[in-house]
Write a structure and sequence with these properties.
Blueprint: H1 7-19, H2 28-38, H3 44-97
Helix pairs in contact: 1-3, 2-3
């Protein structure tokens, strides 16, 4: 089971993510600096929680975009492998017949 985060942490992180999607990164330390710049949160515990949840959001949403880009390449490689296997089978058939 995962950790339960207070709604205030989620709300603030979502607000920052929606307002500055280009500045949010997959790196926790840079997100911590971003939270310090943007918000008025100065409590260390709350700051760390918001930055951590912001990093998690970034991995979830920005990570999906990179996986979507990787899939077509993977499909092309699979097609090439299937074509190569079909070519090998065809050559084996010809050798068996001839």
């Amino acid at each position: 089971m995962g950790k339960i985060r207070p709604s205030s942490v989620k709300r603030l992180a979502l607000h920052i993510f929606r307002q500055n999607p280009d500045r949010v990164s997959l790196d926790y330390a840079s997100n911590k600096k971003l939270v310090l710049e943007i918000s008025t949160v100065r409590a260390k515990h709350l700051l760390n929680r918001v930055a951590g949840y912001l990093t998690r959001l970034a991995k979830r949403y920005k990570g999906l975009k990179t996986e979507a880009k990787a899939e077509p390449e993977q499909e092309i490689e699979e097609q090439e492998m299937e074509e190569a296997e079909a070519g090998v089978k065809a050559e084996a058939k010809q050798e068996a017949q001839g």
